[in-house]
Amino acid sequence: xxxxYPRLEVNLKHLKENVVEVVERCGKMGVQVAGxxxxxxxLSEVIKTFDEGGAAFxxxxxLEQIEEAVALGIEKPMMLIRIPMLSEISEVIRLCExxxxxxxxxxxxxxxxxxxxxxxxxxxxxxxxxxxxxxxxDKEELVNVAEYIENKLINIQLVGVGTNVGCxxxxxxxxxxxxxxxxxxxxxxxxxxxxLEYIAGGATSSLMRIWEGKIPDRVNLxxxxxxxxxxxxxEEYYGHKTEPLHxxxxxxxxxxxxxxxxxxxxxxxxxxxAFGHKPEYLDRGIRRRALLAMxxxxxxxxxxxxxxxxxxxxxxxxxxxxxxxxxxxxKDYKVGDIMEFDVCYATMVYLTSCKNVNIAYI
Length: 362
Ligand SMILES: *Cc1c(COP(=O)(O)O)cnc(C)c1O
What we know:
CATH class of the largest domain: Alpha Beta
Low-confidence stretches: none
CATH superfamily of the largest domain: Alanine racemase
Oligomer: single chain
CATH topology of the largest domain: TIM Barrel
Bound molecules: pyridoxal-5'-phosphate
Strand content: 15-25%
């Protein structure tokens, strides 16, 4: 089953070069990189490549993926970047040296568990600067919690403050935003009377500041996933080039199982599709279409697939099939042919977590 389709090819050489490039550029500006593995569902080869490329931390939102990294014998510190669930505290302490936090109740539970396991757990407090996902909105509360950790929690070490932007509220990591974060950190430092080790200024979107060569001096940690794995978003959404990063690390290949000329409008009384939706169908007469042996189960949404051949068009999909209009293609598609796609973030997450998809390292 080695040549099984659908197949996701992962170019590890290019991945390694992307890790090295991001780590080096950040390094020149005094910024460490936490390699975020969740976009590729913690595939072990991806974890190893982040490690070999020089990421200072291995980071994920999911403990299962961090457990995989620990099992691989990776010696870099592990960082949980989603606020811990109370139900996973003992695993957080067992697996991670660092976690991002925004609830004192959780931090107290981490402290108790760290004491029980004889460990010191390191915490970065998250400040919400307007993206409105995780983090303290009330900065006075954040400073009070920092002081509490510093004075009362023996097994918790407060190592820094961080923020997340560009996730829910679509807020940009401008230098003004990052300066705001530095100010929060300095308020904490003033209260606890010492310097913090880390100011964690966001994720891939903050790479724009690195590529421009201008980021507040004290920001010294970024958590980067997409910008290394796909390196698509900054150019796609902001026209911001991140040369020389590779954009071809993931390629999806699927096999054609039927090629026929068919009407473009369904024939008969219209009900609902396989997912209970009532789509609109445009009647364009009879056109040539190819059917692929992969579907929503493998990749999520067909609208987010990016065909490598510009002349073909994705018409739709059900769980295990994808329908492609190939009328305008130069190529005479036949059963058994392979069609190739580039992927975006959500597609990459689906593909790497789907057991029907054959992951092939090239
Ligand atoms: C997912 C995530 C990241 C990484 O985001 P990318 O855009 O993939 O770089 C960083 N920090 C947090 C808190 C995250 O949840």
